[in-house]
Structure formats: C-alpha cells, structure tokens
Predict the structure.
Amino acid sequence: MKTAEEIRRLKNALPFWLSLGMIPLAIAGGWFGGWTVALLPVYGWLLVTILDAITGLEEDNPDTLIPETDLFWYRLITMIWFPIQFLTVFGMIWWVTHTDHLNMTEILVLMFGMGVISGTVGIVYSHELLHQKNRLERWLGDLLLGMVLYSHFRSEHLLVHHRHVGTPRDPVTARYNEGFHRYFYRVLRDCPPSAWKAEAQMLARRGLPLWHRRNPFWRYAALQGAFLLLAAAIGGWMGLGLFVFQAFVAVWQLELTNYIEHYGLTRRHLGDGKYEHVLPRHSWNAAHKASNWLLINLQRHSDHHYKPDRRFPLLQTYSEDEAPQLPYGYPAMTTLAMIPPLWRRVMNPKVRQWRRKYYPDIEDWKPYNTGTNPPPRHV
C-alpha cells in the first residue's frame, strides 16, 4: 500500500502531468504543418498504448485516508488545465484563420487534434472536478464542458449515470451487442432530455419552477454561447465552424470512453423496478499504467462508482476476482470500439463469461440486452 509520504512526493505526481506533452505538439502542428498535424492523435492513442505495453500494470493501492493537503501536486494539474486548454484551442483558431501556410486538410486534422486535447484531457479533468465539493473546482469543470458544448453532461452524469448505471434508466450504459455507432446516436439523442428531466425533478422537489435561476441549464447555455461568440469573434464563420468541429471530436471521444466503461454489464433486476446495488462487477477496469497517467486513473472505474468524490490519486484498483478487466488500456480499447465486428469478437465472450460468473441463474438475458427491463422505480 502506498503511504502518504510516497504519495505527496512531486516525482510520484509528475506522471499524471503527461497531458502537458500535448501542448508543444499542437504548437508544432500549427507552425510546421504537414505530417506534424497528426502528432496529437498519435500521442493520445498510439504512443500511450505503446507506453502501456512498456510500463505494464499498476496494481498497488494508496492509503485512502491520505489527507487532501498531501495531494497538492495531483490537484494542481486539473486546476490549471482550463486556462491551458483555453489558450491552446482559441489560440489555434486565431492562428489558422489568420495565416495561409496550412491547407484545409491540415487545418481539419489539426483541429481534430484540438478535439483530442479537449476530449481526452479536458473532459476527463472536468469529470474529476465536477465530483468535488470545492466551488472553484466545480466551476472549472463547467468551463471545460462549456468549451465542448456538452454542459448537460454534468447533470446527466451526477444525477442519472451514478444512480442508475447498469439499468435501462441510464442512457450511457452500452448494451450487449450494441455497436458504438448506434450507441453514439442513441446517447446524443437521449442524454440531453434525460439530464433536463433530472434537473426538473430536483427543482420540483425544492418547490421551484423550471425557469428558476437555480436551474443549471441557464448557466450551461450562457457558457456555451459565450464560447461560440468568442470563436466567431476570433475567426469569423470559419473559426466558429472549427470550434464546433473540435467540440464534436471531444464529445465523440467522451462517448467512446463511456461506451467501453460499462459495455454489457447490467445490474440484476429484482422485480417491481428494483435493482441490486452498484458493485465493483458493474464496471470494466484497466490497470495499465501509462493510460492511467494520461486519464488520471479513470480506468479504476469500479472504485470511482463506489466513492464518486474520491480524488483520483486515491482510487483503488481491483483484482480480476473482484471486477472485470479490459485486455488493454482505454486508448487501445476505444480504437477497437470503432470497429464493431472486431469489438464484439473481443468483448462479447468476456461479457458472457462475466454473466456465467456472477449471474449463472439468469436464463433469459433478452430484456437486459435490449434495455426493456422496467426502469428503476425511483427516478
């Protein structure tokens, strides 16, 4: 077990600053053009996957009682990321709309890389920040989500996903045999109204109308509108289009991650709209070291669902006996998910093995596969 003395050392926190390596690659792509515009996707997926193979697994757990004061260097990277991402994305929009040495293909690949930054890093960091009680951190999380035009994710994630994961009420629990492309369309369609409904219920319980200022959707609209206006002011219609494009790429990466985190894993329906409690078995985990550095331990996903506000340096890993394990880290698995036949060939046998292990008595899996079990009674 890692002690507080080990955790607080700067050298142990620095691997989680791996995300900063993306910034000079973005600058190089904008300055030199050519093949350098592809460096960001290569870094985010290929290089990290190679590093996973080299560095292996990290299966040690930290002491969960380590105080926040010992986590300064870990928290710092998540708190400074918004200004870094803001300057990088909007600086790049200004650059490509005010210079003429890049052709349109190079610009689009470069802005795809901006989406890799704001999706692979920005949304993952916002996820960490939104789960904290600190008001500044939660605002930084909102700002990061506003930059990818996906602010409703906060409401959907906190009020729906964590309560109803593994049930038909959770849109982002990927169903068995559901290909990613079909899943992606479904979550884009279902998540915004689901988030709105959850917030409406929260307001109703407080006796407040939908248009009350405490409805966070007003804040979401204001932040997203401000970022859109800024992009247009900096780069005109082209700048606006490029900003929307990087936001779409970021959301695509978020939903790829959501897809693999719970694919085919469902909670037992106990009857009458009741479901078993969330357990470690209801999330896919990956102990691959390098991708956990880049994704600040997001792959220790079972423990995140057990203790949602536990800061990322203290998240626990689980053995294969306790929770299902992915064969590769998230960067490699998200690439696999883009090819549904290959994904099903790798993951469907693992889901069936998981079912035999934990639910050998369930004979009819069709309602779980199709999401047609009764929704949870308390929504």
